[in-house]
Amino acid sequence: MSFSITGKTAIVTGAASGIGLAIARHFADKGANVMFADVDEDRLDAEIGEEARGDGPIRSFAGNFCEKLAITNLLSATIDAFDRVDILVNAARRMALSDPLSADADAVSDLFRENVMSGLRLTQMTAKRMMHWADQNAVEPGTPIGSIINLSSVAVRVTQPELLGYSVSCAAVEQVTRSMAVALAPKGIRVNAVAIGSVMSGSLQYALKEDAAARQKIVAQTPLGRIAAPDELSETVQFLASDASSFITGQVLTVDGGRGLLDGVRFAAH
């Protein structure tokens, strides 16, 4: 079974920075046609502006994907450029700290809207485009036609009260993953998620510069004793996007170096 995604078309959200950018670039390096999608048009242009111009395998689209029109336009732009969509990676996420005893309801709602509802709507609309393409091309029922990958977090399993809104939204993403996997399985579309720990993206590098002690804290809570490189996550997402995972759906793969295995309470050996 092949890990190849050469010639496939992928939409990656959150692709102007951090993990989304790493995944999108990895996919392009592996031969996929990639639509880099993000709400931040200036940063998107700064990262891949020149590469996205012309008729090559990289394109970009900026929009607020909490809005249905932006999703419709994203899908239309992708299909106009590449004819079809094979892979969707919902990598756009926002993390915010809050006091669990006085969490602002609006702030929690905003995180839920951005981290859950936008990805759900994009998943629904992308799946419909995949199914429409299959109907137009007389694809036999049950034939694999697409793979959708959502990003979640180890925060779902490692309780961090200050991340109440973020943790709840990621838990919802995992349930959406399972529900959509069952609903779309008869259509030949697989839906999985990757729950991540700490990955050395640009945003984490910046955060560690601001808080030098944070690196030691992360490493101490990670049995493998290090922070993941972006490609380690990108390779996992590629696996789920490829035919190598053709019998995997509705699953949450945890890529955290074992961080979710620890309860934080340690006893000295005698």
Descriptive report:
This protein has a single domain (9-255), classed as NAD(P)-binding Rossmann-like Domain (Rossmann fold, 3-Layer(aba) Sandwich). It has 270 residues and is α/β, with parallel strands linked by helices. The protein starts with 8 loop residues before the first strand and ends in a 15-residue tail after the last strand. Helix 2 links the parallel strand 2 (33-38) and strand 3 (58-62). It is built from 8 helices and 7 strands. The longest helix has 32 residues, at 105-136. The chain has helices at residues 18-29, 41-52, 68-82, 105-136, 164-184, 202-210, 212-220, 230-241; strands at 9-13, 33-38, 58-62, 87-90, 146-153, 189-196, 252-255. The relative contact order is 0.15. Helix 6 (202-210) crosses helix 7 (212-220). A 7-stranded parallel sheet has the order 3-2-1-4-5-6-7, sandwiched between helices.
Helix-strand blueprint:
Elements lengths: L8 E5 L4 H12 L3 E6 L2 H12 L5 E5 L5 H15 L4 E4 L14 H32 L9 E8 L10 H21 L4 E8 L5 H9 L1 H9 L9 H12 L10 E4 L15
Parallel strand pairs: 1-2, 1-4, 2-3, 4-5, 5-6, 6-7
Helix pairs in contact: 1-8, 3-4, 4-5, 6-7
| Average pLDDT number | 90
Number of helical stretches of at least 4 residues = 8
* Backbone CA Rg: 19 Å
The largest β sheet comes out as: 7 strands, parallel
**CATH fold-level topology:** Rossmann fold
Reading the helices and strands in chain order gives EHEHEHEHEHEHHHE
Family: Belongs to the short-chain dehydrogenases/reductases (SDR) family.
Protein name: SDR family oxidoreductase
Pfam families: adh_short_C2 (PF13561)
